[in-house]
Amino acid sequence: MASGKFITFEGGEGSGKSTQAKLLADRLRAKGIDVVLTREPGGSPFAEQIRELLLSGNLAPHPPLAEALLFYAARADHMATTIRPALAAGRWVICDRFSDSTRVYQGGAGGLGADVLAELERLVVGAGQPHLTLILDLAPALGLARAEARRTGPGDVACAEADPYERRDLAFHERLRAGYLAIAGAEPARCAVVDAAEAADAIAARVWSLVESRLLAGRP
Ligand SMILES: Nc1ncnc2c1ncn2[C@@H]1O[C@H](COP(=O)(O)OP(=O)(O)OP(=O)(O)O)[C@@H](O)[C@H]1O
Ligand SMILES: [Mg+2]
Question: Which CATH number goes with the domain that contains 190?
């Protein structure tokens, strides 16, 4: 059976990754494509346990390498348990954050060397790179305001605490944005930058046109 396609969504806090990942999954499913919608850190039972630890805000001080290894421990299990088997079965995988997040959060903005992260990526991801990475680009102040509104607004999902990354200063978030744009510039065949300041449906339309032209062209 033909292998499925692997799509990742990347971008700063509140840039709309989860919203767009869900909209794309719905649209592909409506076309009859079997989709696994997953996220990082997490996406498998063991990786979700590591997610809880990483995002708890209760971590004792630790060096950036230790943190990157935790993300990669989660990713190794997620790849082995969820992503590789799904793709091998011909299913499409949409992942909300993946290794580019580690490159920019722990690397460019976090201080860990790009060579170290490249080595971890080689070990864990190897040839399993995404076929398409959609980088949602947004001014950090806007993304943080959206994330804040989601947390404090009305509704059932309100009142979760800001995670440790959301609480970092604006300069950190500007470095994240620059880091993502640098990745897109260096790997144009895999990545596409999408302006995330627009309305959600306009972004979804842009995402869909990229998926059509890059992954669906030539399919029946
Ligand atoms: N294009 C948009 N315009 C305005 N608000 C949006 C847009 N897309 C999503 N939102 C809202 O902004 C908030 C953040 O969106 P979402 O959760 O999809 O972002 P995210 O990138 O997954 O955030 P996080 O980095 O925190 O996981 C949500 O409340 C969502 O409903
Ligand atoms: Mg999200």
Answer: 3.40.50.300
